[in-house]
Fold this protein.
Amino acid sequence: QVQLVESGGGLVQPGGSLRLSCKISGVTMDYVAIGWFRQAPGKEREGVSCISGVDATTYYADSIKDRFTVSRVNARNTVYLQMNSLKLEDTAIYYCATDWRHNCEGVQSQYNTWGQGTQVTVSS
């Protein structure tokens, strides 16, 4: 059974950092693109970042560009999201997901395998 499990969320002050992990089990994910999404209270879920399979090309939403870094360690079947300079507006539940493509060209509605999410709260 394929599972994506996020971890690493928590409470952090503005300007702080967190590193989220997305562990994939049940399948080898070397060539599969993995996306990160988030949903803030009262808002729609939005795409944050994506890392492609094969060549690990990365993509970022404008709102987090230059603050967040996505990476993958295929040997660990894990994708990471390093979040620096966190802002109040980064507070959300963060999800990793895949649509089983090699690239990051899919839209959110095409992602069909999701983790359960991890809460990130940025507060002073």
Summary: The chain has a mean pLDDT of 96. The CA atoms of residues 97 and 114 lie 4 Å apart.
